[in-house]
What we know:
Plipid/glycerol_acylTrfase, 7 helices, phospholipid biosynthesis, seven-stranded mixed sheet, Glycerol-3-phosphate (1)-acyltransferase, EC 2.3.1.51, alpha/beta, lipid metabolism, 236 residues, acyltransferase, 7 strands
Amino acid sequence: MLFSIRMLLLSVHFIVASLVGLIVCLFRPFNPDNSRIAGRLYASLALPIMGVRLKADPLPTRATPCVYVANHQSNYDLFIMGGLIAPRTVSLGKKSLKWVPLFGQLYWLSGNVLIDRGNVMRSRQSMLKTTETLRHRNTSIWFFAEGTRNPSGELLPFKKGAFQMAIAAGVPIVPVCASSYMKHIDLNRWNSGRILLDSLPEIPTAGLTAEDVPALLAQCQTQMQQRIRELDSQVA
């Protein structure tokens, strides 16, 4: 019963937050700071509705762009990580997201990059555009490097795109880790559970080349996996 009530309230909140975000975006379309505003709109009431206790320090203030790499567990990430998005940060998403009612239009107008994964040429053009964004527009990019939702707590192999772009643009990687909340939260309880979020020290890419992508990817994944296990042990 409590789960059903929460899902209803989350649905209403999602619609209202999307509408407010769309109004903001219509006045400043494709502004890279729209994602931060939208993230806070979604996270503001969602966490109290879910009954989740979230412990997360703000991401370090940065004067230059970076590539954020985070683990992706479920659609709840929108609510759980939304309040953490730094200024002038956009993300990459599937082109099909554009057609999701309300959210898709908000995602597009927030300046996020939509990739057509079924078209190699267009996907490559989107990646080049994103690299230019990192280089010249003082805008960071948020990646879910696993490429899909994964609630297991054990990271799937990372995709190379985030690391290729970071090296091409000469910007650092900032890993962002969330505890394996899908294992621990129960939305049918008043106190659903606790979630920990943490960012790791940046990993520099200056001087690296395309040949260094596998080592950079492995370094990031190893550090994130270790930290996620530490966060999980604290939650347990």
